[in-house]
Amino acid sequence: MKLTLRIWRQRSSGDKGGLVDYRVEVSPDASFLEMLDVLNERLAGAGEEPIAFDHDCREGICGACSLVIDGAPHGPEQATTTCQLHMRKFSDGDTITVEPWRAKAFPVIKDLMVDRSAFDRIIQAGGYITAPAGTAPEAHSIPVPKPDADFAFQAAECIGCGACVAACPNGSAMLFTAAKVTHLGLLPQGQPERYSRVVDMVEAHDESGFGGCTNTGECTLACPKEIPQDVIGRLNHDFLRAARKPR
Ligand code: SF4
Ligand code: FES
After folding, report:
1. 161: CA distance to ligand 2 center in Å?
2. What is the tens place of the pLDDT at every residue in 83-129?
3. What is the CATH number of domain 2-109?
């Protein structure tokens, strides 16, 4: 396949940045990131600066990859991470635009890499349980109703990639925050901090510069793990109950 890539290049967070065109030739079986590897090898060989982009597992589980491809976070295929996207989804001769996540709370570090430490701050505010360490208890000693276990498991599939933020017209991270609140708030081990957690995580969300949720639903459409908007309903429910509880 012969393709034209229009890639966002930006030397540093203070640089203005802009789109630069590159031509590449790649197999339809290559992944999107392998295609960038091919281009980077060529750039490095020619003594040019390779394109900076985030990646790690390349298996759709770590949440590191983060590209806006032709205007869509993680590209045109639904329920897929950038690393799991293959070039056969495109056509020979295509021009593909590649940009970083765009959100006030995710400033660009370089080229296609953004700073997602705001997500760490939300997790540090309450995305954990407090439990005595020691020998793991017998798995069935705390029964969990099946619907709760299933929904908690679904929410726990969030890989923290940030596509929901990049897709949201408000730059909101409510789907991410709500996935964590739902995952822990549904399980018995998450009950002691259930109400302080939701308040603290929403506070950290707002302080980090994410916008508010207005239920546009773009987040779920862009989410590679198809986290449903129901988690935001659960967050709102717990948040309102927390407001009536003494802290
Ligand atoms: S909710 Fe989905 S899109 Fe948002 S961070 Fe989690 S996995 Fe990524
Ligand atoms: S590189 Fe880990 S999810 Fe894409």
Report:
1. 8
2. 999 999 999 999 999 999 999 999 999 999 999 999 999 999 999 99
3. 3.10.20.30
Q: Are 158 and 202 spatial neighbours (Cβ–Cβ below 8 Å)? A: no
Fold of 116-130+142-243: Fumarate Reductase Iron-sulfur Protein; Chain B, domain 2 (1.10.1060)
Ligand 1 within 6 A of CB of 202: no
H-run or E-run covering 36: helix 32-45
Pocket test for ligand 2, best of 81, 113, 223 (most atoms within 8 A of CB): 81
The letter for the amino acid at 53 is: F
Domain ranges for the chain: 2-109, 116-130+142-243
Whether 231 is in the pocket of ligand 1, judged by its Cβ within 6 Å, is no
Q: Which residue's CA is the nearest one to ligand 1's atom 1?
A: 176
Residue 65 pLDDT > 80:
yes
Of 171, 26, 135, the C-alpha closest to 85 is 26
Give pLDDT, residue 140.
83
Query: Per-residue pLDDT tens for 24-51?
Result: 999 999 999 999 999 999 999 999 999 9
Residue 22, beta-bridge partner list: 5
Q: Which ligand is nearest to the CA of 58?
A: 2
